[in-house]
């Protein structure tokens, strides 16, 4: 069986994170994970990348946390995949299946609508997951649901209160949406989270298929 963490941050790109990509790789390897997906805060969220830089430079810097995690992962035998977390006025979406080259070529992703984000991501074979939809904090103006503009719902998030995860689970169940789990780890700790699979995932596309087609996996 294989454990994959699906939602973690690095301090190279996320302002709120204290751990580097390389340190994330080391600590998840130690915790018995087969792989991790780096999902730093994109430019609509808590990014530490200077928004005044040219687009390509911003993407290069944004991908550093992932690249540092991947470099360490390759040395220690941990798979590292790329994703990101985009934010619309406090509503967070995890995006999987797009890569650095795609981002460099599509600066329009930065200010597109939630509907256009879904169209652009899915037309390119990617996946949109609503991250912790019922999280209730002072920096989130309102809880908003977009069941037709996501491929799935993060129903377990280790940064959430239990009740917020219960609400997310009910929501996903009512709308028959695929479910995911993530640690939302930002610091020097592995809280748990992710999915457990019987088969090893070779690419991020394997993770997307696992979730979208509700293949055999367990939430951690
Ligand atoms: Zn954060
Ligand atoms: Zn996050």
Could you describe the 3D structure shown?
With 220 residues, this protein is of the alpha/beta class. The protein contains seven helices and nine strands. Strands 7-6-5-4-3-2-1-8-9 form a nine-stranded mixed β-sheet. Bound molecules: zinc ion (ZN) (2 copies).
Mean pLDDT: 97
* Low-pLDDT sequence parts: none
Oligomeric state as shown: single chain
How far is the N terminus from the C terminus? 12 Å
Number of domains: 1
CATH architecture: Alpha-Beta Barrel
Helical content band: 25-40%
CATH class term: Alpha Beta
What small molecules does the structure contain?
A: zinc ion
Q: What is the 3D form?
A: globular
Biggest β-sheet: strands ordered side by side in the sheet:
7-6-5-4-3-2-1-8-9
The name of the CATH superfamily reads: Metal-dependent hydrolases
User: Structural class, please?
Assistant: alpha/beta
What is the helix/strand order? EHEHHEEHHEEHEEHE
Q: What is the name of the CATH topology? A: TIM Barrel
Q: β content, as a range?
A: 15-25%
Main sheet characteristics: 9 strands, mixed
Radius of gyration: 16 Å
Total beta-strand segments: 9
